[in-house]
Amino acid sequence: MSMYNPSGRICNTDNLLRENSELVKKIAYQFKSKLPASVEVDDLIQAGMIGLLDAIGKFETTHGAQFHTYASQRIQGAILDELRNSDWLPRGMRKTMRDIEKAIQVLEQKLGYPPNEAAVAKKLNMSIAEYQKVLGDCSGHNLVYFEDFHAEEDSEHFLDRHVQSNKGDALQALLSKGFKKALIDSITALPEREMTLMGLYYEQNLNLKEIGLVMDLSESRISQIHTQAVARLRASLRNKFWTEPE
Question: Rounded CA gap, 135 and 143, in Å?
């Protein structure tokens, strides 16, 4: 299968697909790292391949853009469309995580130290197994969201705000207000296992499977612990740096 572009050059579609398949996988896994466990990476890759095909069909060298850049934009757009159409329900996940954050915050104020899983589960009227399942389902929960700094909701889709982090760059503005120091202090106050995990994930850039091997835990268990650590950090930083959603 081939196509003829305005420059008069024959572009082999099959070759372009093979050459850029790794780009699709890379972008899909970047999305996956920020999404709940319920989202299948294979679905993201399939949507990304559709975006790549669209890029191949519409790209014109006369536009002056590199194909890699153009294709990346089309692939990301196709994956976003797939997530919207699949009804990812980020608001539901956020509501669940807010409940966990509030429980952690209340318990820490009462106990004077970080509560363990059993205490948080009890506060939420859950069994340990139920609580751990919720943590697994909410993997991909982020430390900072666009709407954390804006009390009023707008019509823009959550995923667009989530991906376009340079828009308004609220986090960058916070760095001058002591956010970075507060974040470091909050990380060092985490339970030892969670602090170790966060260091391996964010400083050593290990993925969850690799961290599991280092810490001798399953990948799913590492995902649960990471989600809980993020909830602790958000509970610690909530009153200082962002608005409380209604």
Answer: 14
Q: Do residues 170 and 234 share a domain?
A: yes
- Whether the pLDDT of residue 168 is over 70: the answer is no
Regarding whether 161 and 105 lie in a shared domain, the answer is: yes
Residue 104 lies in a domain: yes
Q: Which domain holds residue 141?
A: 90-241
Q: What is the CATH number of the domain that holds 152?
A: 1.20.140
**pLDDT tens string 79-104:** 888 776 665 545 677 788 889 999 99
In-domain check, residue 175:
yes
Is the model's pTM score more than 0.70? no
Cβ atoms of 136 and 223 closer than 8 Å = yes
Domain annotation covers residue 207: yes
How many degrees, rounded to 5, is the angle at CA 29 between CA 58 and CA 54? 10
- Does residue 246 lie within any of the structural domains? no
Listed residues 61, 85, 109: the one ending a domain: 85
Arithmetic mean of pLDDT, 49-67 = 76
